[in-house]
Write a structure and sequence with these properties.
Layout: E1 2-7, H1 15-31, E2 36-38, H2 56-70, E3 77-86, E4 89-98, E5 101-107, E6 127-131, E7 134-140, H3 143-146, E8 155-159, H4 168-183, E9 186-190, E10 193-196, E11 199-202, E12 206-208, E13 214-217, E14 224-229, H5 244-263, E15 268-272, H6 277-290, E16 295-299, H7 307-320, E17 323-326, H8 330-344, H9 349-372, E18 374-378, H10 382-387, E19 400-401, H11 408-418, H12 427-431, H13 450-462, H14 467-472, H15 477-495
Parallel strand pairs: 1-2, 2-3, 7-8, 8-9, 15-16, 15-18, 16-17, 18-19
Antiparallel strand pairs: 1-14, 3-4, 4-5, 6-7, 9-12, 10-11, 12-13
Helix pairs in contact: 1-2, 5-6, 5-11, 6-7, 6-11, 13-15
Length: 519
Amino acid sequence: MKIAIAQINYLCGNFEYNKYKIIDAITHAKEEGADLVVFAEQAITGVPAHSLLVRGYFLGKAEETLVEIAAYTDDIAILVGLPIHRNGGTVSAAAFIQNRRIKRYITKRSLQSDVDAAYLNHGRGHEYIHLAGEKIAVAVGGDFLSDHDFSDASTIVVMGADRYQQGRIERRYDYLAEKAFMADANVIFVNHIGGSSEIVYDGSSAMFNAKGKCVALLGSFVEEIAFVDTQNTAMEIEVPYQDKSANVYGALKLGISDYFDKNHPTEKACVVLTGGIDSSVAAVILADALGSDRVVGMLMPSTTSNPQSISDAAELAKTLGIELVTVPLSDIYSQALPSIVAAIGEPDVLKLEEDFQLRLRTALFMAVCEHRGCVPINSANKTELAVGALTLYGNTSGMIGLLGDLYKSDVYALARHINSRREIISEHTLLKTPSSEMQVGSSLRTLPPYDVIDAILYRMLERWQDQDEIVDAGFDVEDVQLVRSLVYASLEKVFQFCPIVEVSSVPLDKSYVDLPTAN
């Protein structure tokens, strides 16, 4: 049996757009002589739909669209995902359509890993269809993980909506291979691809044969339609090595490009360039994702700026071919300082230098963005956000955070990946001590080294380890206590931070409510 695997970038809530993408795939599959086309979970609506899933008009429109799609299924069968209303609630379902007839719905039971779990009810779980003389098990989302008995099906079709996380692709391939071997059946997995809100879906759809060997791989972070033959699975291929930095780069590039294409299709991105590692990496990704003509860099030197950093920022803008807007901060700061001193008395000069200048910089940044019709991009990283090394209403500002789910060490790894073919980010930027350069001697030298902070944060935030467990792993107790206290103290900043492109298993965002703001 010839099956088309349709890995498509949908628009959440845009039924017409999704309908035509699905119909185009069906048409193409017919031309290639396919017996069945498989689409992802909730393909008709797009994901994640969140509270739309409990709205009657949304569900009604989804089923109307399904009927329209069914009209194009003469001489072919399809499995397509959508939410439907059943037994007083919404369930995620796979509609099986053949020769223009909607023959049945297969509903998802497992909701443990579903981003929309709060809005969905449990369905019946995996079921079977018979097509072209074969018995096919159909599982929606997590039912493939939780169900174990597939009753002699020759092929298992898994319709997923599995978001990207670091290490997720290789773990998914391993599980698909193991499941195929244990079930003694082909396993076909079809996934979403694209950025939607903060979430990125990586695609990476695949087919594994009954020996647990890969016979088809679709690309990661790209749209693609592939054709497989369930009766001809002898041509096995090696699953390629998954480079962590390359995948993170691909996820961020896709996430930010779709953020603009789906929300701000005619606008440019604007990012503050400091000559530092974070803004440099952000600028490279933006230029690659959107094109150099859609990126504006802002350089705002102050009296405390390192001349080399200014030079590095200007050189990067030239290398990337992006527009550079320079607005000196020194004169504005010196003119505003007397008014601030009059209002607050004798200030903490170093604190005022840094925080007030950063807030002035943000005011200028936002003014240029509003005037130029640009989207302000935040380039702060997860480490600095977690420990509060950011100024509220200063470098916490922006409409979306590009690097907010990457630890500082991940940002450095990404910079080395960017430079792996040719030097784009200067060696000076990679080697210099991180600093806001908004006061003399400003840096994070009072904290442990970044690699230590990141290791503690990873254990605390993503492995849920308490203080004693982290100390027992070999970390200095004072370092652990310091980082832990900083995380609790910075949560109010986290709650006011902009949305971020998520690439980790536990993004530090407004939904991270396991830690109370007072402790």
